[in-house]
Design brief:
62% of the residues lie in helices and 5% in strands. The chain is mainly α. It has one domain (3-68). Helix 1 packs antiparallel against helix 2 (33-44).
Length: 76
């Protein structure tokens, strides 16, 4: 795993353990957006994973979808 991927995943985990407990669980999807980001970066690489994570976060709003939304291995 590249250094950049490790740094980004570390920052996401830092968010999960320090900030997320303070604001509560607000994600509309399973897995949560932060877990989705980690999985997509690990499976797709940093750029594609960041893109998928960004698109997922854009869908996470009251008028967006919700429910089970796994990483699709066939995308891109």
């Amino acid at each position: 795993m590249s250094v950049f991927k490790r740094i980004i995943i570390f920052l996401i985990k830092l968010y999960q353990y320090s900030i997320s407990p303070l604001i509560g669980s607000n994600c509309r999807f399973v897995p949560t957006c932060s877990n989705y980001a980690i999985q997509s970066i690990e499976e797709k690489g940093l750029l594609k994973g960041a893109y998928f994570s960004f698109m997922r976060i854009l869908r996470c709003h009251p008028f967006g979808g919700s429910g089970y939304d796994p990483i699709n291995k066939n995308k891109l």
